[in-house]
UniProtKB/TrEMBL annotation:
Record lineage: Eukaryota, Viridiplantae, Streptophyta, Embryophyta, Tracheophyta
Species of origin: Salix viminalis
Transmembrane residue ranges: none
Name the record gives this protein: cysteine dioxygenase
Domain of life of the source: Eukaryota
Start-end of Basic residues biased regions: 37-47
Length: 295
């Protein structure tokens, strides 16, 4: 999924920093004991026995998988399988989420549902976060430039429609609208990759810079939670801007030299760039699940 969430992330990080400042442990001196050797041995044994939480395992795996990657560079097949295996086994309880939480409650009739975002981690290599969608919540059609994205539906039913660009058809300003418009938009032909419902539990969805449905739209049929891993994350300075789109049936426009067989037209659409939808509201919330130790 992976829509741009930098503003929400900043607010959550500021709250976290304030919480840290209130913990009065900065002036505490370490305790000493004559039997330090025995205690150290017991601590080492305890560390070996402590199980790594699923979210910590996810963080550690992302660190390994995206360590040598950058924009447009796809992790190796082995690394993709490794990260997918971790996400495939992920459960809502691993991040302390249940559908009854306030994050997932239906909106007031007539109002666009507010989407909540739980920030887990972000660095220049990858980001981890959870989108919480109430029923009818929509993540509008958007892209993931130069990214490899893993999306795991933790619970709920969600409709996904995704596209990839048709490689040999560039953007066209000569498209003729049907019926004709005063201003002809710039549109580009895309091929439908997925147009179906996902029902949790299900396998992790993966999209790539030029394949796998790099542009997608999510619609929550029921309350949904989606764990997203982006590598690398959005970054305007690095040219990874989140672009939104409108999609139109193939027959809405005609472009010289572009034709599709009648029986295949439903598998294609024209995409037009748009500004971020005014009714899209993503609110950052504090993550309250197991802690992540950033080594």
């Amino acid at each position: 999924m992976g829509i741009e969430t930098s503003v929400a992330n900043k607010k959550v990080k500021q709250v976290c920093e304030l919480a840290k400042d209130k913990i009065p442990n900065s002036n505490l001196s370490p305790k000493t004991n004559t039997n330090t050797k025995g205690k150290k041995n017991r601590r080492r044994q305890h560390k070996k026995m402590v199980a790594v939480s699923p979210v910590q395992k996810l963080f550690n795996t992302c660190n390994e998988v995206f360590d040598s990657c950058s924009s447009g560079i796809i992790p190796s097949p082995d690394d993709i399988r490794k990260l997918k295996a971790v996400l495939d086994n992920f459960k809502p309880a691993d991040v302390d989420l249940v559908p009854e939480m306030q994050h997932f409650q239906a909106s007031v009739a007539g109002k666009t549902p507010v989407i909540r975002y739980l920030h887990l981690h972000e660095c220049d290599k990858f980001s981890m976060g959870i989108f919480c969608l109430p029923p009818s919540g929509i993540i509008p059609l958007h892209n993931h430039p130069g990214m490899t994205v893993f999306s795991k539906l933790l619970f709920g039913t969600m409709h996904i429609k995704s596209y990839d660009w048709v490689a040999d058809v560039p953007a066209s300003t000569s498209a003729v609208a049907s019926p004709s418009k005063t201003k002809q938009p710039e549109v580009r032909l895309a091929k439908v990759k997925v147009n179906s419902k996902l029902i949790a539990p299900c396998e992790t969805s993966i999209l790539y810079p030029t394949d796998g449905g790099n542009m997608h739209c999510f619609t929550a049929v029921t309350a949904c939670a989606v764990l997203d891993v982006l590598g690398p994350p959005y970054s305007d300075p690095d040219g990874r801007h989140c672009q939104y789109y409108l999609d139109f049936p193939f027959d809405n426009f005609s472009v010289d030299g572009v034709s599709i067989a009648e029986e295949e037209k439903e598998g294609y659409a024209w995409l037009e760039e748009r500004e971020k939808p005014e009714d899209l509201t993503v609110v950052g919330e504090l993550y309250g699940g197991p802690a992540i130790v950033e080594k």
